[in-house]
Every structure is written in structure tokens, then in C-alpha cells.
Amino acid sequence: MSINNLDPNNSMPLHLDALSTDETYMLRCLQIAKNGLGTTAPNPMVGAVIVHNDKIIGEGFTSAYGGSHAEVNAINSVTDASLLKSSTIYVTLEPCSHHGKTPPCADLIIKMGIPKVVIGLKDPHEKVAGNGIKKLEAAGCIVKVGILQKECEEHHKRFLTFFTKKRPYLILKWAETADGFIAPEPIKRGEEKKPYWITNTKSRQLVHKWRSEEAGILVGTNTVLADNPQLNLRDWAGKAPTRIVIDRRLKITKDFHVLDGKQNTIICTEITDRNNYIDGVTYKVLNFIANLPQQLFTLMYEEQIQSVIIEGGAQTLQSFIDANLWDEARIFKGTNRFSKGIAAPKISGRKLKQIQILTDQLTIIRND
Questions:
Q1: Contact of 345 with 174, CB cutoff 8 Å
Q2: Nearest to residue 45, comparing CAs of 64, 26, 25?
């Protein structure tokens, strides 16, 4: 099975022969929208398709942040602009109605004379929130909303969670042995640390692909001290996520990879003395006695980090589970055994799917 097909977001299989015409074109919008995964945030990864006489004449998806939106790219892809005046544009999310880094897409649709707009779902962003639809209707466009709405909500889950819950979409990820451990027992002083792997190379490559799709990656102090992870994309091409490291007392020294300055890094600490800070790293002071997961969510919301994957350790993962502040868990189970060690987190939720990756089993759980 190809790494590209191991998509935990693809959880709603559709029967193509049962789709209406509008649903068929909206499904195409969702397919091409995935090309923007990991690059468009804080903008949503929208897909747009333009249809004339039941033939697709233009397609587009949201460019990397700061670039053109999906509607603009779709319109610009049409070779004969005169056809737009008798075409329908399909889009997964309500066209924007405000000026940001680019002009409003609703204005461009009106300017080009496109008479019909089919939308997957309304945009919850306070600067849009139905205003794009109102603007289109006021200009005489026929607007249809709610086509494949559940599928569009699933696709835009990061964006929707961020603007409706004021926090990032949170993914928990860990690998555990067949007997339920995520790491062997900590080594004693003087003992040589031996490398270990729970999962196979295919699973590890998949994790790097996931990292490229999320805005942030979070780990705790013990994980850094024990494993010295790089938290980068060595096995996949894409944009590296912002590293968020919980280091209450600044135990992590500058010789660790997370402080190498090679990608954006935020250290969460209670130390206020700036003399202990390292140049090129952002430090955020938190109250570790209060609700730490909620504070981290607030921090990530302020930093415009719309999605985060938490990769360890057991204590950090369990703290988010216990606070019920998570959306999705991706759990690998390998075939080897430790007999003793650090136990895997305990979690319950709706099992979304189970995938076999060579010798590993991957289970996706959703917190509904």
C-alpha cells in the first residue's frame, strides 16, 4: 500500500454512482483541495472547480499562504474567459468577502459574471460568516449551499476547529509495542543507551508525511532528553512544523536538536530570566501549576497554529487525554515486546479505521 494512500482524513468513502451532479463536482473540489495540505494555513485549503455545459473548464486550489485563493486560481485557469458568464463555480468553502493579503474572492466571481455558485459549507471566520454568500446573492448570483457538507467539514476540520473552538485541531500520535509500552525503562547512570525502534521504516516515513501536514509538533522535556528528536521532515518533502517543546525548568541544553535554530521553535517554560534563553528560539512563560493543556491551546491560538501533532512523551500525551483536549489519535502497534518499560497512554474514543502497514498496525481514533 502506498504511503500516499494512508490518509487518516479520508474517512468518509462515497459511492460515486449515487452522487448527484453537484456532489460529483464538489467531490472533485475536495480532491484537488488536498494539494494545499500543510501549506495554506492560516488560510483554509479550499478547492474550486468551474463547469460549463457539464464540462470542467477550470480548477484551482489555495496557494501557499500569501498566494492566490482557490477561486482565483480556478478562474485564471480557464482559457476562454467568455465562458464564465454561463458557468457554475463549485467551491468547498464560502468565498471570502473581505480584503486580506488578497482581494475578496466574492468580488472576483461577481466581476467575471459567473451566474451560479455552489458551496460546500459556510465560512465560520468572523470576517466572512455568511457575508460572502450575501454579497453574491445581492449581485444576482444563484447560490447553493451545503453540498457534501459533512465531507467538506471533515476536510476543513483544522480550520473549523480553530475558528469555532478557538484552539488548534489536536492529533495525538504514539507507537507502542505488542505488550503496551512506548519506551523501555530509563537507563541507569553509566549504562550505555541502546537505540530501539517500535515501528518499521514505512510507518516512520508516514509520520514524517503527517508532520508536513500540520502547523505544529509538540513534545515534552523527557522525550527530548531521552531521544534528542529532530522533529523535522527528513523522510518527506514539505514545510516543517513549528516545534513546541514543554521545558518547565529549561533542562534542555543548546546541544539538543530542538534548539538548533533550523526551524521555528517555541519553548514553554516557567523561567523568566532571559539570561537562560538561547538566541533564535521563542520562549513563552506559562503557569505550570494551572491547567497546562489549556494554556498551551491558548498559546497556539495566539500564534495562529491551527493544528498540532503531539508525539510524546507518555505524561504529555496523557495530560491532554485526561483533560479531554484532543481530536484525533493515531496509534501504531509494533510486533516487538519490551516486557517492562514506560506504559502507553490510556485512551478511548470512536475507532475510525485500522490499517496494516507491513508488520505494524495503525489505529485511528476520533474524540467525538
A1: yes
A2: 64
Q: Which residues contact 212 (CB under 8 A, 6 or more apart)?
A: 38, 233, 236, 237, 238, 239, 240, 241
Residue ranges, comma separated, of all CATH 3.40.140.10 domains in the chain are: 21-160
> Which CATH number does the domain 21-160 belong to among 3.40.50.2300, 3.40.140.10, 3.30.300.10, 3.40.50.720?
3.40.140.10
Question: Annotation-wise, does 21 bind a ligand?
Answer: no
Neighbouring residues of 73: CB distance < 8 A, sequence distance ≥ 6: 48, 59, 60, 61, 62, 63
Q: Is 352 exposed, middle or buried (0-12, 13-18, 19+ CB in 10 A)?
A: middle
For helices 292-302 and 314-322, the axis angle rounded to 10 degrees is 90
Residues spanned by CATH 3.40.430.10 within the chain?
Answer: 166-366
* 170 has binding-site annotation: no
Residue 121 backbone zone (phi > 0: left; psi -120 to 50: alpha; other: beta): beta
CATH 3.40.430.10: does it fit domain 166-366?
Answer: yes
Q: What is the pLDDT of residue 16?
A: 66
Is the pLDDT higher at 332 or at 41? 332
Cell of 79: 482559457
In this predicted structure, the answer to whether residue 211 has a pLDDT above a threshold of 50 is yes
Whether residue 71 lies in the annotated active site: yes
Please state, in angstroms and rounded to a whole number, the distance separating the CA atoms of residues 302 and 304: 5
Q: Is 28 annotated as a binding residue?
A: no
pTM: 0.90
Q: CA 291, CA 345: separation in Å to the nearest integer? A: 19
Ramachandran region of residue 84, left (φ > 0), alpha (ψ -120 to 50) or beta? alpha
Catalytic residue among 23, 59, 71, 328: 71
> Facing residues of 49 across strands?
59, 90
* 175 in a known ligand binding site: yes
Burial class (CB in 10 A: 0-12, 13-18, 19+), 55: exposed
Dist. CA 234–CA 173, nearest whole Å: 18
